[in-house]
Design the sequence.
């Protein structure tokens, strides 16, 4: 039986690879992943920031600018200039989204702000209009300035409130650094208690997994289209109608299994892979859920033309409702009907793995019930025609 199964699997795969549409669908993945990886290597960001340093000899301003430009996530794109008028012109002519103009002596400005016990402007921000990305950019600027401002407050407190004027600046710096907290104040964990570290990836690569999940569903729908076309051409004429659902599952499983393997490899190549055991289980259950979902859609659509029309609607719905780009809070009842929703959340939450298993079982039972109901209707019509 194992040898016969492997032979059939090989022959069905061989038949698929002779279809140009199948090869075209498979080529979509390396093009998508390769394009995103190339885009991640290019200079990119959600906002363009020009850093204006009127005094290139200002050590503090140079350190802050270097810290900002060392951002590995690529969220903001930075450029440098020395003239304030040039920075303003770049913003006005849409060469930059915002300009950060540092004071001529940043250290002295921070110390003045710290001594007066209130935050005073030390960087002039020039923007044409406000936006979410620019609000985020100002938070990044504040985070870059905070260490220097924090030390200025500490030093001012030591000298004025404790009256330790004889202590040198080096001693104050050493005492300050001994109290610093090393590492992060927060520990990231997921709802299932897992704390596995993921590969670091560029923000442009974040939607890769969601797009691959939708691609796998499209592969399942394409496999159902192939089966329906073969059925119309009489390829399964000798197969009893009662057994065609199992044949459909078997034929489509070959296509979906190939696509699932490519999905795993693509996640690894794109740098969004987590850990093997979780990825394999999630992808295997997702493939089964996709197989059941696509066959249910096939039974409901009846004809290849209707199924082809539904593919566009389903793709748009999955892009909006599944957490590919955004995770919308509403439409929960509709989300639970789409297999990518379970898969994208199951990677970091084991509860959705169980939910995907239940979903697969329920949809498979619905396929069996619908298929038997349609077969019973066909038998009733045949019996009616014979009696007539």
Sequence:
């Amino acid at each position: 039986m194992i040898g016969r199964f492997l032979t059939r699997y090989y022959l069905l795969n061989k038949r698929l690879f002779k279809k140009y549409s199948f090869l075209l669908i498979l080529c979509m993945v390396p093009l998508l992943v390769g394009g995103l990886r190339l885009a991640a290597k290019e200079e990119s960001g959600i906002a363009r920031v020009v850093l204006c340093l009127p005094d290139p000899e200002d050590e503090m301003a140079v350190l802050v600018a270097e810290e900002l430009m060392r951002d590995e996530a690529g969220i903001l794109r930075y450029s440098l200039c020395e003239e304030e008028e040039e920075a303003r012109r770049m913003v006005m002519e849409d060469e930059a989204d915002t300009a950060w103009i540092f004071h001529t002596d940043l250290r002295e400005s921070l110390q003045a702000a710290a001594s007066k016990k209130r935050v005073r402007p030390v960087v002039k921000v020039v923007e044409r209009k406000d936006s979410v990305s620019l609000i985020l950019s100002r938070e990044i600027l504040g985070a870059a300035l905070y260490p220097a401002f924090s030390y200025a407050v500490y030093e001012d407190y030591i000298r004025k409130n404790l009256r330790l004027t004889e202590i040198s600046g080096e001693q104050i710096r050493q005492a300050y650094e001994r109290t610093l907290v090393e590492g992060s104040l927060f520990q990231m964990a997921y709802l299932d208690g897992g704390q596995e570290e993921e590969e670091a990836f560029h923000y442009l690569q974040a939607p890769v997994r969601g797009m691959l999940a939708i691609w796998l569903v499209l592969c399942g729908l394409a496999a159902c289209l192939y089966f329906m076309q073969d059925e119309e051409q009489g390829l399964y004429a000798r197969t009893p109608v009662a057994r065609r659902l199992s044949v459909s599952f078997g034929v489509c499983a070959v296509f979906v299994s190939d696509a699932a393997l490519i999905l795993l490899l693509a996640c690894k190549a794109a740098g969004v892979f987590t850990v093997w055991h979780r990825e394999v289980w999630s992808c295997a259950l997702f493939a089964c859920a996709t197989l059941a979902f696509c066959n249910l859609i096939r039974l409901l659509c009846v004809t290849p033309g209707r199924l082809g029309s539904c593919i566009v609607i389903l793709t748009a719905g999955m892009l909006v409702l599944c957490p590919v780009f955004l995770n919308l809070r509403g439409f929960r009842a509709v989300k639970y009907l789409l297999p990518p929703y379970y898969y994208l959340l199951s990677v970091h939450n084991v509860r959705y793995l169980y939910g995907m298993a239940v979903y697969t079982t329920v949809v498979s039972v619905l396929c069996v019930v619908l298929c038997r109901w349609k077969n019973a209707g066909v038998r009733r019509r045949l019996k009616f025609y014979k009696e007539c």
Q: What stands out?
A: The longest strand covers residues 47-52. The beta strands are 47-52, 76-81, 98-102, 123-127. Residues 195-199 have pLDDT under 50 and may be disordered.
